[in-house]
Design goal:
CATH class of the largest domain: Mainly Alpha
CATH architecture of the largest domain: Orthogonal Bundle
Distance between the termini: 21 Å
Largest sheet: 5 strands, antiparallel
Order of helices and strands: EEHHEEEHEEEEEHHHHHHHEHH
Shape: elongated
Helix content: 40-55%
Length: about 450
Amino acid sequence: MQVSVEATSSLERQMTVTVPAERIEDDVNSRLKQTARTARIDGFRPGKVPMKVLKRRYGAGVRQEVLGEVIQQSFYEAVTQEKLKPAGGPNIEPKQSEEGQDFQYVATFEVYPEIALADYSAAEIVKETSEVADADVEEMVETLRKQHSTFSDVERASEDGDQLNIDFEGFKDGEAFEGGKAEGHDLVIGSSTMIPGFEDGLVGKSAGEELELELTFPEQYHSEELAGQAVVFKVKVNKVSAPELPELDAEFFNKFGIEESDLDGFKGEIRNNMEREVKQALHAKLKNKVLNELVNLNDIDVPQALIDGEVDRLRQQAVQQFGGGANIDASALPAELFADQAKRRVSIGLLVGELIQANELKADADRVRSTIEEMAQTYQQPQEVIDYYYGNQEQLAQVEALVLEDQVVDLLASQAKVTEEAVSYQDAIKPAQPEEAEEAPEAEEEKAEAAE
């Protein structure tokens, strides 16, 4: 077998493979002989059909099967021989396939980039720190009480936090618009479920009052017909209800799966949950900053095949996130919506994979166990969760991949210039900004593919 390779770009390769005719013909003849044992052709007994007749009847089909298998086998042999690492499936173009002549084809494909990691000591990272204060716990308890409050009718003007039962209808240019009407609608003032100004306009109103609200829809409203448009809502207040907060007793505590019967014990459980939440949030933010800086310091060529694969994954995630399920064809979502994010995610994956290999990192078993145990604490039967992970190799592998990625983050953070910044609990748990919220998808998988 002869192989020649041409680099048509930094990552694209055109590989010409020539397979000797003898290999093709031997495989075809061997396949035809097998066929002869069972072939039934009029005028011939089974097993006695001449080769010439078999070739005329089955030769073309058998040859195509053989060529398909030869392409698969020879492509793998060729990339191994040339020490190439394909980043995706090849595009195969046959050049010569006539009987009796050497078979030749051209395979076009991308390879994984050669990565020379930059010195990470130039990175500057701000690491946020936070502690859960007593005031944070008190605020959380009150928030939980408000979430489980009940409402009782009152004979007074409405206040912030009250629930109003209303009828309303919206008009644009004097005409009622679709979706702008409801009767007997319950609305909590301050919930921000209506467009800006709607709830504010209901403060100070009493049951039986009718009013008109002159408002403007936000410029980014999901309906193009209403976005940025001036409208009038005619509203009737049917009744006003004031919130009643639940008592801080065992019945209330049990709603959250907490068996504590006293307030101090309940607050202790709430604090534990908040501390776990803030720890996870701060870890995620630091991780995103470290990985994003890794990408910024290492400008690498990224195979389009990997980007396309990541775009498909992001499409599927988008469909699942919005509850489309089987009703939405993910492939119909424009690729350009996900292209930049996909490229960045793949870049992170390739760089993390390179660091794993360069530093010969393996997932720390103790860290894997502590991660699983921490995850299990959020369930009522922690030991069952732990046993599940260790009894399911696929689930365990996912945790090991996360731990391995965290070890890479720790390694990079130890090399960078890290400064700490104390932030409040509320700021700590705020989601990262879009440009910060990148992760390293399939880092181990991509590196494993590159090493094959």
